[in-house]
Write a structure and sequence with these properties.
Elements: E1 2-11, E2 14-26, H1 46-64, H2 93-113
Antiparallel strand pairs: 1-2
Length: 114
Amino acid sequence: MKITKFKLIFTGSKITIQEFERPFGYDFESKANKNSRPRTEKLLDPEECARKARNRLKKLIWSNGWQITNPQTNKPYKPIFITLTFADNIQDLKTANLILKNFIKRLNHYVSKN
């Protein structure tokens, strides 16, 4: 086992170095075959959960977003992160998905037309 206080995060063309207060151990062996203890679920603050989810999503966008290129310049597009919300308080998932699907169709039509 190796010990460090740093974590390297590779997201597309960006590398982030995260430093922790206390050192932690790591190894590169798969733990899937080893007997693992069940995780104890702890209650988390909803704001903290949302912040962590946003950060995971941003990392995912940065690691995959540079793969789409402009056909004229052959350069990758810069990833853009947007949040879409509904004006009404929609509780039905099927209705929300239908509205989002129609929005994406109209957006694609508008973008491909210009």
